[in-house]
Specification:
The structure is a single chain. By secondary structure, the protein is an alpha/beta fold. It is built from eight helices and twelve strands. The strands form two sheets. The protein has a six-stranded parallel β-sheet with strand order 3-2-1-4-5-12, sandwiched between helices. Strands 6-11-10-7-8-9 form a six-stranded parallel β-sheet. It binds NADP nicotinamide-adenine-dinucleotide phosphate (NAP). The site of NADP nicotinamide-adenine-dinucleotide phosphate (NAP) has 25 residues, from strand 2, helix 2 and helix 3.
Length: 254
């Protein structure tokens, strides 16, 4: 029985687990950070909460006799990806990263590349604007430095405490978000500029397409740099790698 640990918190992790769940030759566990109050149901057993850094993860991999680690975390979960790379290296456990490709601007898009939250704040300018922050709780703090703007903040769970600015509206919502609904949302709140991560994938692309339709600028928070490890972009490629492409597996099976 091969033991696979998937670091999740993404749609891709859930879908990969779904594909592997019925396999009798695999024991698959999905790991969540445990931040979301009501996580969606998962097709395989779930463990929840941090491991205690790279060393904690390495100890977990050894203790649970994990053969393969799949880092299917969100592309902005760079700390976890760093820990996965370090723990795989120190334990010799095979590691594959499943990373969605970035969105690429198309005709009609007006994107401003922001290297970090501070640069995103700068990109909003001095004059008061009506801003949609589609960022999640981890990335909101820099915007407190620009209290002149109105912020519409959308997150999966309520932001506690709320963003400390005079004019903010917080809404909760879990994707997928359709373009039409996001367009209606941006219009209803008179949004002039959107701040987004370049998450990739379909589920949260609605706001990007909506901004294009409305002629709005998107301040795109650049992806963090991630460790150089074997990586694929699709679930199909991850499945192929698990079954055929991974030397350590082959050696252990002999
Ligand atoms: P992060 O900053 O890279 O990681 C911070 C710490 O959270 C890690 O050091 C680890 O704690 C714990 N952690 C993160 N992912 C974990 C997982 N899958 N299983 C167990 N522990 C995990 O992570 P983050 O950006 O806060 O993201 C947290 C979770 O939300 C991830 O599962 C990610 O896939 C998901 N998510 C993130 C974003 C985003 O924009 N960042 C968006 C959608 C979903 P220890 O050091 O104690 O092990």
């Amino acid at each position: 029985m091969r033991r696979i640990l998937i670091l999740g918190g993404t749609t891709e992790a859930r879908l990969l687990a779904e594909q592997l769940a019925a396999r009798r030759d695999l024991a698959v566990t999905l790991s969540l950070a445990g931040r979301t109050a009501n996580p969606v149901a998962q097709p395989v057993p779930v463990r929840s909460g941090g491991f205690g850094g790279a060393e904690g993860l390495a100890a977990h991999l050894t203790r649970e006799h994990v053969d393969v680690l799949i880092d299917a975390t969100h592309p902005y979960a760079a700390v976890m990806s760093g820990h996965a790379a370090a723990a795989a290296k120190s334990t010799g456990v095979a590691l594959l990263a499943l990373r969605r490709p970035s969105w690429v601007a198309v005709a009609g898009d007006h994107w401003i590349d922001a290297k970090d939250g501070g640069a995103a704040v700068q990109a909003l300018g001095e004059a008061p604007r009506r801003v949609f922050l589609a960022l999640g709780r981890n990335h909101l703090a820099p915007f407190v430095a620009a209290p002149q703007h109105f912020y519409l903040v959308r997150s999966v769970d309520p932001v506690e405490p709320p963003l400390a600015v005079p004019r903010a509206r917080h809404i909760v919502g879990r994707g997928p978000f359709a373009q039409a609904a996001d367009q209606a949302l941006l219009t209803a709140h008179g949004i002039e500029i959107v701040v987004s991560k370049n998450s990739g994938g379909e589920a949260t692309y609605g706001k990007i397409a909506a901004a294009r339709s409305l002629g709005l600028t998107v301040v795109m928070l650049r992806r963090p740099s991630l460790p150089a490890v074997p990586a694929v972009e699709t679930i199909a490629d991850a499945l192929a790698w698990i079954d055929h492409g991974q030397a350590t597996f082959a050696e252990r099976e002999v």
